[in-house]
Write a structure and sequence with these properties.
Strand content: 25-35%
Strand order of the largest sheet: 5-11-10-7-8
Largest sheet: 5 strands, mixed
Shape: globular
Radius of gyration: 30 Å
Distance between the termini: 69 Å
Number of domains: 2
Helix content: 25-40%
Order of helices and strands: EEHEEHEEEHEEEE
Number of strands: 11
CATH architecture of the largest domain: Sandwich
CATH superfamily of the largest domain: Cupredoxins -  blue copper proteins
Number of helices: 3
CATH class of the largest domain: Mainly Beta
Length: about 180
């Protein structure tokens, strides 16, 4: 028989001396594992809490026919649209004046989730966030997608870097609203 007296302390009977080397090796390995767990466990906990702290910030954007509400200071212009062509005609006449009054979305660089909501638009919508202009479009991250049915939403995740962006819905023919990231 043997008795355990701590991490590195064992007493063996005479008959077990021939096997003591293998037990000693095993206990040395277990001791090393024990020390490694207590050394790395705080590191694992630190990095997992850092990952939780780096979760994305949620930005909600609501689409109604031909516009994003939040981008136009919450004003619903009451446009009627049954198809894309309706918004093309409406925005040809109104978007310049509306963009002059529109909110510029200002954010810090970081991780974001854009939740785009289809509020009573009778056709599928989408979202496209990209750098403003050719140079920014080439150097800045972008995200896009469609399939947002009436009374539903879709989330778009992106890691934004400093720069000037625009966002819109090509399927709802909204104006290109400005987003500035510092």
């Amino acid at each position: 028989m043997f008795e355990y007296h701590g991490v590195n302390s064992f007493n063996f009977t005479q008959s077990q001396l021939s096997r003591s080397l293998s037990w000693k090796n095993m206990m040395t390995i277990l001791s090393a594992v024990h020390r490694a767990v207590f050394f790395f466990l705080p590191l694992v906990m630190f990095f997992s809490s850092s990952a939780q702290a780096a979760e994305s910030t949620l930005i909600e954007l609501t689409q109604v026919p031909c516009q994003f509400l939040e981008s136009e200071k919450g004003i619903n212009h009451g446009f009627a649209s049954q198809q894309l062509a309706d918004c093309v005609a409406i925005n040809e006449k109104t978007q310049k004046a509306r963009l002059a009054k529109a909110n510029i979305l200002r954010l810090a660089a970081g991780s974001y989730t854009f939740r785009v909501i289809n509020k009573n638009v009778p056709y599928e919508l989408g979202f496209w966030l990209r750098g403003d202009g050719l140079i920014n479009r080439a150097r800045l991250p972008s995200v896009s997608g469609g399939g947002i049915k009436t009374a539903s939403h879709r989330d778009y995740e992106i890691e934004l870097k400093a720069g000037k962006y625009v966002y819109s819905c090509p399927l709802n023919n909204t104006p290109d609203y400005t987003l500035v990231v510092k």
